[in-house]
Amino acid sequence: MNFISRSGGNGVYPRVRSKLILSLSLASLVAGCAAGPDYRPAAPAELGVPQNYSQGGGTQLSPEAMATWWTQLGDPTLDALVERAVSANLDLAHATARLRQAREALVQARAGLLPTLDASSGAGRNFSSPGTDRSSFSLGGDAAWEVDIFGGIGRSIEAARADAEGAGYDLANVRVAIVAEVATNYIQARLAQEQLRIARETLSNDSENLDIAGWRVQAGLVSSLDQEQARAQRARTAASIPNIEVQYRGALNRIAVLTGEAPGAATAALEATAPIPSAPDAIATGIPADTLRQRPDVRAAERTLAAATARIGVAEADLLPSLRITGNIGTNAFSLGGLFDTVTGGLFASIAQSVFDGGRRRAAVRSQQAAADAAFASYKQTVLTSLEDVENGINAFGSAGTRMGEFATALDAANNSAILARSQYRAGLTDFQTLLQTEQSLLSARNSLASSRADKALAVVQLYRALGGGWQSMDGIAR
C-alpha cells in the first residue's frame, strides 16, 4: 500500500480528506435506512387466541404464586427438593451455558459497528562484512471500518439480541420442566408409599383370612376350596408388592438425578413415609393472553421469529453496496531516538458491489424469508399448544376433585361391607366367595382413593406447568 507523507501545518492529508468527506457524506445520506422488514409482534387475535378459556374463570394470576406454585401443596420436603434441583440440576447448567454463549454472540455482533485497530512494532539488526552493522526499528498501525450504510450489521445485532433473549427463555422453560418433574416424581413416590402401606395391610388381612379358612376346613365346616381361594388371594396381594416397590424406587432414583446427584444417599430422607401432598381447592388460571406472557416456550418461539425476521434484512443488505474505510500509519528509523522523525500514513475509502454471483445472494434472501415463515408457523403452533395444555390442565384438575369425592364415598361403603362380610364368615353366615369379593372391593377402593388424591396433586403440577409457572423469580431473564 502506498503511503502519503504528512504535510501542511494542520497535519491533514488533502487527498485523503476529500475521499473521507465523500465517503461520510454518502453514509449520512443512507443512515437509518435499514434493509429488510421491521419486526412487529403479532397480536393475540392474529394468533387465534380466544378471550377466555372454555372452562374456569379469568381470575388474575399472582406472580408470587406462579413463581413458587409448588409451595401450595404444603410439603416442606418437596420445597427443599425443588430448591436443590434449581441449584444443581445439570440440564439447567447446560441451558445456562447456552445462554452465556448466546450473550457472547451478541457482543460479537455489536463489535461489527466499531472499527478494528491493529498495531505492530519491530526491531532488527543488520550485519555486514566488512561494512558497518546497523539497527532498525519500526512502528505501525492499521484501522478498518465497515460503514453500516444499509443496516445489515444492525440487523445482525437485532437477530443476535433476539437469539440471546430466546436462549434466556429456553433456560426458563427448562426450569419450568425440571420443577414440574421433581414435583411429579415426588407425588408418585408418596403414592407408591401409600399403595405399599395398603398392600401390606391387605396382605395381613389375607393371611388372617387364610388362617380362618384353614381352621374351618379342619373343623369340617367347609371344603378345602375356601382355603385354596384364600391362599390364591394372599399370593396375588403379595405379588403386587414388588411391582409397587419398583415404581417407588424408580421415582426416588429420578428425583436424585433431577437434583444433580447419583441415586442412593441423595433420597435417603424420602424413605420415611409421608402422606400424598394435598392439592388446593382452586387455582387461578387467568386469561389466554396471560399464558402467552407466562409461558417461556411461547416467548422463546416469538424471539426465534424476531431473529428470523431480522436475518431477512441481513441477507437483503448483502445485495447492496458496502462502504469500507481503511487507514494506516507507520514510521521507520535506524535509532529509537529518530523513530518519530518521519511518520507516514494513509486513509482510503472503497465501495464494493456484487455484480454477478449466480443468484446466490437473492436465493439467500428468499431462504431467510422462508425461515421467517416457518418460524411464524412454529410460533403459532406453540401458542395453540400452550392453550391446549391449559385447557387440559383445567379439565384434569376439576375431574380429579370430583373423582376424589366419589372414591371417598366408595371407600366408606367398601370398608363397611368388608367388616360385615368378615364377621359373617367367621360366624359361618356367608361363604368365602362373598368375603373375597368384598375384600377385593375394599382394596380397589383404597387404591382408587389414594390414586385420586395423587391425581389431584398431579393435576396441580400439570396446570401450573401449562400456565408457565416456576421461572418468574429467575435473575437475569427478560420479562
Automatic annotation (TrEMBL):
Pfam families: OEP. It comes from the Bacteria. It is found in: Cell membrane. InterPro entries: MdtP/NodT-like (IPR010131), OMP_efflux (IPR003423). SUPFAM superfamilies: Outer membrane efflux proteins (OEP). Keywords: Lipoprotein, Membrane, Palmitate, Transmembrane, Transmembrane beta strand. It is a lipid-anchor. PROSITE patterns: PROKAR_LIPOPROTEIN (PS51257). Belongs to the outer membrane factor (OMF) (TC 1.B.17) family. This is Efflux transporter outer membrane subunit.
